[in-house]
Amino acid sequence: MKKTLQSITISRFLSAAALSLSLLLAGCQGNVSETVGDLLTNPFGSSDEEEEVINVVALTPQEVPWHIQATVAATVLRLKDEDPDAIDEKFSLVGSGGIATDENSSLAGFGVENVQINDFFRPQEAPEINRLGARLILVDPTGRRLGVSFVADYELAEDQVILKGHQWGYSRAETPAVETYIVRTAAIEELDEASVRDYQTFRSHILSNAAPTGDPTASADIADYTVVTFVMDRILDGDKFEVRLSAVKDGTEGFPDASRYILHDNGWVTGIVPGRFSLAGEKSFWVKAVYTPKEEEDGGFFGKLLTNERLIGLYNTANLSESAS
């Protein structure tokens, strides 16, 4: 991730001069639920045509076999670092302790937003094994999301799932969601370093101090403000994120040098841009959230010459839909 602060102090990230409350994109939609059976989508389609596909019909969530639901539930609960013995007992499993957890991130507060079954088949070389491939979307109460893809191998012994192997990894959001707010710089200076590093504390403080924008009678006087952009989806290693300021609405071009970045919980980036500017319409400018996913290894020579950066958020400091004339 680009320009992520390793050591954060209030005076440090507010000292840079900048060119210079609205939600850009919602962090999540729908209700958060732990009832995995009610969240399964797109079940039973194998991506490997050479494998023996057990079931390729489109089933409703209620028709998804119990052993698939149990395996998905065990994966979710182990990601949340819950006790494997309790998981085994609850879901008639053996071996959930073999599902790895992320020692660098706490996912205890996350719930299930969506489960997608991608593959379910018996490998030709091991016909006694059921191989399940799925993708999870997890979300926390603030709207932060993360994607997880996993593959599980298991056998069935009467009414038990016997896990034989399990691998998972974080998956990339195609278009990460962002939220942008403007606050008085003095409000951020009220926070100590520990409060800035704690996501819940920092976000709550920003939202409660967000300046109203879009007032046609807003003063043209210059004041000390800070632009704060939250990336609501987890950013993967090698991906880049920048907040750029621009007088022009179109494109991804802009001024990035004043932007500073905070890494929360080993995956969620927040952009900070302090400066002196007015919230009046005639003085407005654009805040651009620009995301560049990690370059594909097999992109080839010409692929490396082309940029794959994407504009994932666009915010006007006076809530205008077009640049002020």
Automatic annotation (TrEMBL):
<feature type="signal peptide">
    <location>
        <begin position="1"/>
        <end position="26"/>
    </location>
</feature>
<protein>
    <submittedName>
        <fullName>Uncharacterized protein</fullName>
    </submittedName>
</protein>
<keyword id="KW-0732">Signal</keyword>
